Each structure stands twice: as C-alpha cells, then as structure tokens.
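Reviewer 2 asked us to include a model.

Predict the structure of this chain.
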Amino acid sequence: MKKNITLSAEELLIKKAREKAAREKKSLNAAFREWLARYVGQETSSSRYGDLMNRLSYTRPGRKFSREEMNER
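Predicted model (structure tokens):
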C-alpha cells in the first residue's frame, strides 16, 4: 500500500528535479520512489557486508604476503 508524504525543498531545486525527471520520461514521484528504494537498500547492503565480514573474521592468512605474491596471477 502506498502512502502519501509531504516534503519541502527550494522552489528552483524542485523545478530542476521535475525537468530532469521529465527528460527521463518519469514523474518526480517515480524518481523519488526509486531514490527512496536505493536509500534504504544502501543501509541493507552495508549491513549485509558487515555481517559477512563478521562471519569471515575467523580466517587468518597465517603470515603477511609480499606485494609480488599478492599481485601474482
């Protein structure tokens, strides 16, 4: 279910945002919904990355590798 929210911003900024959205053939609402999904997703992605690093924290290479060893292919 979609809910309405009210935002405020400078008039010129809103005008430019509407123009950009129009060039992308979408409404300002659609552009905002996309941004909101990315905004929330960033938090989720960084949280998942942190969880992964915590799960892998038990691994140890046993020694320091030289620059040459790290760049070997």
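Residues 27-55 form one domain. Residues 28-55 form the longest helix (28 residues). We have added this to the supplementary material.
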